[in-house]
Amino acid sequence: MALSNSQEKSQRRHEKVDMHFQMRKCIDCKKYTLKETCPKCGHETSTVHPGKYSPDDKYARYRISDRYK
Question: Which of left, alpha, beta for 32 (phi over 0: left; psi -120 to 50: alpha)?
Fold first, then answer.
């Protein structure tokens, strides 16, 4: 069954959303990768990018106070 042109565009748009292009770092072996699990040791990776900046940051007061303790 062939998809209509608008359905095809919508499907391509959803495929792009699922792709991950952020660098990640393995917690154990300290290797960088794009995958959610480390290809070398198999452990979970975490993102190395900071969170988004927001001028309406609700938790800035707590983060700043923790920094100077």
Answer: beta
What's residue 31's pLDDT? 93
Q: pLDDT higher for 16 or 20?
A: 20
Query: Going by C-beta distance under 8 Å and a sequence separation of 6 or more, which residues neighbour residue 25?
Result: 31, 32, 33, 45, 46, 47, 48
62: phi > 0 → left, psi -120 to 50 → alpha, else beta; which?
alpha
- Integer Cα distance of 24 and 48 in angstroms: 6
Task: Please compute the mean of the pLDDT values over residues 9-14 and round it to a whole number.
Answer: 56
Q: Say how many C-beta atoms besides its own lie within 10 A of residue 68's C-beta.
A: 5
